[in-house]
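Researcher: Structure for this, please.
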Amino acid sequence: MLKVLKFGGTSVGTIDSLRNVKAIVEGLDAPAIVVVSALGGLTDKLIATANSSAEGSEHYREEMVNIRKRHHDIINELVPDDKKGSVTEKVDSLLNLLEERYQGLSLIKTLPVKTLDEIVSFGERMSSVIVAAIIAGAEHRNSLDFVKTEKWFNRNIADRPLTERLIKETFRLPLTNHIVTGGFISTDRDTGEITNLGRGGSDYTAALIAAALDADLLEIWTDVDGFLTADPRIIKDARIIPEMSFVESMELCSFGAKVIYPPTIYPVFHKNIPIKILNTFNPTAPGTHISDNVVGKGRVRGVSSLNNTAMVTMSGPLTANVAEINSRAYNAMARNGISVFMVAQPSEESSFSIAMPSGDSEKALEQLVLEFSPELQTGELRSIDKTDNLSVVALVGEGIKNVRNLGNEIVAALKSAGIDVKAISAGASETTVAAVVPSDSVKDALRVSHSVCFK
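Model: Predicted structure, token format:
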């Protein structure tokens, strides 16, 4: 059975957590591919130090002392004696290059994008070398050699065909030993310059490898026991979701559950390669199994929330023409790069609402007024108004569109608890029922919704 295991920053952040990683991998029944992030918190530190250096500060010298010590402490504590010298040499070489980049920035007082991309790459380049040395019999592969990107509207996106071919050449099957590589980092296919895969890049690297090699399972090791029915910091009796579908996992994360970043799992989603979410700090916990072979569809899997939301509401006779107003509103948002979370039906009649990030609300209002200015003049639309300081509470589960009266039941429960429901979206999505509430009521709304769904 071929497994790809991804360990995030918290999993490789300390000596104790790295001991857990070592035990988990060495306890496997067969050789596996291990993808690691930079040491926990290091990427943010690398970026912050790059910015201060570009402002002419020499604070990087002090930061480099701390970064060196952190990596050396791990090497000295965990790397076997016969490997310490070579690993220290490799890591020191990278650390010296990193310090040179900071020194250069402090002199030129500017931060080119390609230099920042190179600087943030050092985290994974060092962590992967160290982790490969810690795990008995493991080999190291440099992801800069096989993850290739191309430019797409000034963004770096993976060149999937080229990357897939190089992955197959790099990881010859069947594996004879564990192989460790860094996530997130890549190189431009045309220039060879160091790039990265952006947010969720380590998950994406692991998914690309798993998909290219037709792995049997992708394991994402993090610092939680899996997906929970709600945020345990808000709802004390939240429970682990033992299994869920790809769609459910992506929808929950889209509405605020920060377990995985949805776009990163598309490569395995399309090949129906299962994903397991597991806890590095509690490795015996069963975790959450994600696949398309899930039983019990048609019920709520989890409740999540999305804060910093605004809503623009259009009122008037035109809203009765759902097809026209929906199409025109969406097109206006798309042309201006505004992400729409949901379409909602407010409690008042003859109205239509869309929810979006708070930062886009003013622009959304302007564009909708512009789009519907003829109807505002004729009276087909009476008003277009926005409301800020809102949150969306989402109930997620495949097939819950067909759960009778769920939306009405949630609205009734929320109103009974004294929570002002600004709008409800029930029936528009196969997987989600969502309610818009004031942000200062979101925690109470989560508790009420969870209690309705998980009695």
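Researcher: Any notable elements?
Model: The mean pLDDT is 93. The two ends are 39 Å apart (CA to CA).
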